[in-house]
Amino acid sequence: MKTIDELLAEGVSGKRVFVRADLNVPLADGQITDDGRIRAVLPTVEALTGAGAKVIVASHLGRPKGAPDPAFSLLPAAERLGELLGKPVAFAQDTVGPAAHAAVDGLEPGQVAVIENLRFNPGETSKDDAERAAFADELAALADVYVGDGFGAVHRKHASVYDLPARLPHYAGYLIATEVGVLQKLTEEVQRPYAVVLGGAKVSDKLGVIDNLLEKADRILIGGGMVFTFLKAKGYEVGASMLQEDQIPVVQEYLKRAEEKGVEFVLPVDVVVSGGFPDLKAKEPTHPDTVPADAIPAGQMGLDIGPATAELYAAKLADARTIFWNGPMGVFEHPDYAGGTRAVAQALLDSPAFTVVGGGDSAAAVRLLGFDENAYGHISTGGGASLEYLEGKTLPGLAALED
Ligand SMILES: Nc1ncnc2c1ncn2[C@@H]1O[C@H](COP(=O)(O)OP(=O)(O)O)[C@@H](O)[C@H]1O
Ligand SMILES: O=C(OP(=O)(O)O)[C@H](O)COP(=O)(O)O
């Protein structure tokens, strides 16, 4: 994989450089609540502007449905990027249309333009190779060189991640190089016991990863929205909680295999429930209940692991030598449901293990709950990406950067 240092050595002055970043930051009411992913791409953008490149920064944000949707505009991220760079950043209100071309044509060496959300275009995420290729051709027309630095999206076979680098000279940015360096070590020299903590809301993505983790980890602790498919698989009722009904047989098979292989699955013993999903804007008290994990009342929604579970998980992490954590334990954005995530974040710090926290929301949670991000072994900007990397899978966005 050629890195950006080689590009800089070759010279980029006056060249149009397309930086595929992951600026998929959490937003509340249109405001960025954590800018970690924007800060993570600064070294790459600053090196390029410093060398006189015309820099085009592109990213997805959220999961819009292949058409413009103001709720998912990249404008707030572009503004924040400008603040962090300390200079104005042009913003194009389309991705490959006239506004994007005008913004790029208007760039002087050392200047930056952000184009609108890549996923406003159906070609970006299409499963149809020809449709993705056509969109990649349009993106390629904007630039002379490609720098891949959106680590959080390298597991996606999307036009800007996978097809575009094939059309331009391509290099890995500093973030991708750093992430891969740390995670590679984790695949080669894992100190045991190796504990993996999984939570969050992207349940179908992450359940698949467990198949492979059963071969690698000694202990797997489950929290977040994933919990309820496990509880249901054990025969418990889960009320109105998040549930992947179709995955129940898969989870049952995981539980069986774990027992055969001596891998310890640790599931919640208690759950914090409420009558519905909390209002994350108002953040008013919701008066939740804590109930045993096998007694979630009908109509109640599980929104965090309970305090007994938090204590159990801390104990299960205390003697681990390696811990990988992806996915908040609950709806940490509301103070009533942040306890489990806070407890796990603290348990990682209390343990002597090498600790890796992966994922946009997990990394944001650590910072928003007031923990020192530098106290962890590594904070990865990618959750799904780091999990799939640790599985040993070939990731489309990394393969595309190979020569
Ligand atoms: N029990 C739950 N029910 C619904 N959502 C949950 C639950 N637990 C956690 N979440 C949500 O999961 C989201 C993060 O999930 P995800 O995107 O998978 O994590 P990451 O970005 O770290 O990979 C958070 O916004 C959080 O509110
Ligand atoms: O937030 C992301 O992944 P993550 O939640 O696994 O860290 C990336 O921006 C990828 O987004 P996607 O899961 O909508 O493809």
List keywords for this structure.
403 residues, alpha/beta, six-stranded parallel beta sheet, 16 helices, 17% strand, binds adenosine-5'-diphosphate, binds 1,3-bisphosphoglyceric acid
Describe this protein's structure.
Pathway: Carbohydrate degradation; glycolysis; pyruvate from D-glyceraldehyde 3-phosphate: step 2/5. Belongs to the phosphoglycerate kinase family. It is an enzyme of class 2 (transferase). With 403 residues, this protein is an alpha/beta fold. It is 39% helix and 17% strand. It is built from 16 helices and 17 strands. A 6-stranded parallel sheet has the order 5-6-4-1-7-8, sandwiched between helices. The protein has a 6-stranded parallel sheet with strand order 11-10-9-15-16-17, with helices on both faces. It has a 3-stranded antiparallel sheet with strand order 13-12-14. Helix 2 crosses helix 3, helix 10 packs across helix 11 and helix 12 packs parallel to helix 13. The longest helix is centred in the N-terminal third of the chain and has 15 residues. The radius of gyration is 22 Å and the shape is globular. The termini are close together. The structure holds adenosine-5'-diphosphate and 1,3-bisphosphoglyceric acid.
